[in-house]
Amino acid sequence: MRKADLVNQISEKTGIPKVDVLVTLETMFKEVKDTLSGGENIYIRGFGSFITKKRAAKIGRNIKKNIAVHIPEHYIPAFKPAKEFVAEVKKLKEVKPDEGPGDDV
Asked: For the whole model, what pTM was predicted?
């Protein structure tokens, strides 16, 4: 499912115009990014948590030049689903393969 599909589905289920749904989704995405960038986590009961994880400094390797490269410690965004969310997904009996553009036969 792409963002456009999500907007269409929400619009159909709620009766809210697609433009308003799109603006709301974009605002939510921006707020999640801004909040995580500010070092704060977001907790949504029954859905999950948007958190930042700390990656320790390490030595990587540039395989083209075969030299060691220092990678400093940094933070990455992550999503941790709530127990209810995980339980709901585990109930699925059949996993559908991802259908991307060009997968039609």
From this structure: 0.72
